Fold each of these.
Amino acid sequence: MNTVLVTGASSGFGKAICQKLIADGYKVIGAARRVDKLSELARQLDDNFLPFQLDVTKKDAVENLLLSLPDKFKPIDILINNAGLALGMEPAYEANYADWEIMVNTNIIGLMHLTRIILPEMVKRNSGYIINLGSTAGNYAYQGGNVYGATKAFVKQFSANLRTDLLGKKIRVTNIEPGLCGNTEFSNVRFHGNGKQAAAVYQGVEFIKPEDIANTVSWLVNSPKHFNVNNIEIMPTAQASGGLKVIKNM
Ligand SMILES: NC(=O)c1ccc[n+]([C@@H]2O[C@H](COP(=O)([O-])OP(=O)(O)OC[C@H]3O[C@@H](n4cnc5c(N)ncnc54)[C@H](OP(=O)(O)O)[C@@H]3O)[C@@H](O)[C@H]2O)c1
């Protein structure tokens, strides 16, 4: 039975991915900072789920995860780099710089920590799968997307470069690029707990749900090993790129 490490398991996509992969018969390590949320999830799942408190921005803590895993959950066969966040939607000239630093530290540096620490073991075994949670924000610019979109463009290019470094090895890499998804904490976090502003994002839209992303992950990890999906971009039918705008008579 394969073992999967899912970061950002306390909420949204990560939580749904843990639920789905446990149902599929995997052993799952669910990592996040909020232990209460992880314990609540552990109560719903069986003992093939291991809750693990982890802040992905702390390199020592990521190293410690590998060292302190019980034998049952070793080795990690599949890494799902899902932990991430957007903070703020102000234009770049008004954005909170501390928010920018947190996004870079989590979405880029945190993902680098997990990948650099876990990948060598996969290479030694010549087997493994890394699934990264990018975003359509890494593909299309939008107002207020500035650093968040740039972190997800990093995730896209890093995923592609990993594929290149791993050519000739039996290790797969996929970047999942979701558009507008609801029923997660994403917008509550982005708007610093302003529930009204967060709710407005989803009003009147049939959005993608965490279960849709979890089903996509399940399809990917259960697909044949000779088959690599490089990128998968998923949007609600109600969303598409609006094209380039021109402001007349500026
Ligand atoms: N929802 C969307 O519309 C959307 C669209 C495209 C891409 N995405 C991406 O999908 C991923 C999951 O988002 P979501 O919508 O499921 O959001 P969410 O409900 O807010 O979940 C984010 C998860 O990341 C964890 N996390 C944040 N900082 C962390 C840190 N420093 N260390 C460890 N875990 C951390 C959170 O757990 P703790 O707070 O407990 O640590 C939480 O479990 C993110 O990478 C996001 O950028 C989301």
Amino acid sequence: MRKRAAVFLIAVLPALALVGAPADPAAASSDYQRVIDITFPVGGPVTYSDDYHAWRGDGTRRHQATDLYGAKLQLVYAARGGSICRITGVTEPVGAYGYQIAICGDDGLEYHYVHLNDDRPGTDDGQGGPEWAYAPDLRVGTRVARGQWIGYLGDSGNAEDTEPHVHFEIEDPGLEDPAISAAPYMPDRLNPYPSLRQAQVEGDVGGGVLRAGSRGPAVVDWQRQLNQVLTDDVGVDGVFGPATHEATTAFQRAQGIDPDGIVGPVTRAAMVRAIGSPATTPVSSDGARPWPGRYLRLEDPLLRGDDVRAWQQRMRERGWRDSTGGPLAVDGIFGPESDRACRLFQQERGLTVDGIVGPATWQAAFAGVSAAT
Ligand SMILES: [Zn+2]
């Protein structure tokens, strides 16, 4: 069943009027709509509405979550730090919720990320397996930092016939709010909507705020950007360790920003200005290269050719890596790793995320970047 009718472009929602003031801590456990300080858990464009009270189960229960609709393989990030207490398809079977991560937060709340991706890129085949659902190396007990990349948006479980989305739940075991204390409600589910709105208003969006301890593709991107503007390279390993922290504070000092080592909206804006200035972005020596005229994408049989090789070479030069963290293969075969890199690149550049190297994606890849400094 399609659910698009229930979804509104967030742009048309009043930006501030819907955001409640942070609740008085003393009353915190008795308000199911209280605002929790979270990082918005999906990177890139999403649509959502306040669908907490929507009926589910043929009118037997309420939704009690927020569905965040986007494109398959958009990156999903931890809203709060904690440890993984559930990860289906890894240590327990996949059920109606499909691929699902639950993080037991350090704040005593439980955060659920449901219907993560189960398809191989470019398909709806249900054959993706855990590697296309989750970030690498996640297990029950794994520590996860706030804002850390944890998985991919998708349509697994009973979302198979809906638009791809993350069903995002916040559970508070200590919640006692008369408004939801009896059926058809479960008494421990907060309404995530006001918290999601506040995170967006504050610009605290997944992939957006990085700090010491952050990991994942967003850190890789940040490290590459640092290397474009600083003379001493940091390792591009996706781990925000001491070297990245130091480079970040050096960048902030050079920009006249409070050197706190936290990559938030102000620091990001400064980086955009720094990278965008002509002095630091000479056109690459190999220059622009015309699109070869063939759409490169994951197909069966796999596409092969010099055009694929040229694009892979270019992506590798730009620092793109495969899912194991190794350099992107330049083998002239457009396989799943090429598809993955293409989608992440498209997401980063604000292009349509379809895994297809057409004219726009090709030109973006061959557009000028800084020579190594
Ligand atoms: Zn849902």
